[in-house]
Amino acid sequence: MYTWKDLETIVAKLRSEDGCPWDREQTHESLKSCLQNECQEVMEAIDKGDMANLCEELGDLLFNIVLQCRIGEEEGVFTMAEVINGASEKMIRRHPFVFEEKKTLSPQESQALWKEIKLQEKSKKP
User: Fold this and answer.
1) Cα–Cα distance between 66 and 15 in angstroms, integer?
2) What pTM, to 2 d.p., does this model score?
3) Are 15 and 24 in contact (CB under 8 A)?
4) Across the chain, which distance is largest between two alpha carbons, in Å?
5) Which residues, 6+ apart, have CB-to-CB distance to 20 below 8 Å?
6) Burial class (CB in 10 A: 0-12, 13-18, 19+), 57
7) What is the Cα–Cα distance from 75 to 79, expressed in whole angstroms?
8) Euclidean distance between CA atoms 26 and 41, whole angstroms
9) What is the pLDDT of residues 6-63, one digit of tens each?
10) Quick check: 110 and 97 in contact, CB under 8 A?
11) Contact assessment for residue 6 and residue 61, using Cβ atoms and an 8 Å cutoff
């Protein structure tokens, strides 16, 4: 069974000089349609209730995300670790009722709090 690290190694190999010519020439911009297509295929699998296909399509989407992160690393603009850290910080920050206050909220209350925190974050950005 392959691991997260294996996937990162596979993507690095594909982007290397002796890797895949198509993968090597990809950019964030050139991959936009691939990301859009994979997201659409994930949604279609969900709509059909096809869990085997959902598993496959999530893998394709994950591959695209890892590829985007690899390009970011190569360009020196961000790393996979920064993407993971940012997502983790955001989830913890937007769920204070889980990670800080430990109080029970309804799904509607938790969604309203999420939206409120998100608006506060957006208003603080330059």
Assistant:
1) 11
2) 0.89
3) yes
4) 53
5) 14
6) buried
7) 10
8) 21
9) 999 999 999 999 999 999 999 999 999 999 999 999 999 999 999 999 999 999 999 9
10) yes
11) no
Token couple for 62 = 């994950």
Token pair listed for 42: 């994930």
Q: Cα(28)–Cα(26) distance, rounded to whole angstroms? A: 7
Q: How many CB atoms lie within 10 A of CB 23?
A: 16
Residue 92 in tokens: 């913890």
Q: How far apart are CA 114 and CA 108, in angstroms?
A: 10
- Label residue 38 exposed, middle or buried (CB < 10 Å: 0-12, 13-18, 19+): buried
**Distance from first CA to last CA of the chain, Å, rounded?**
44
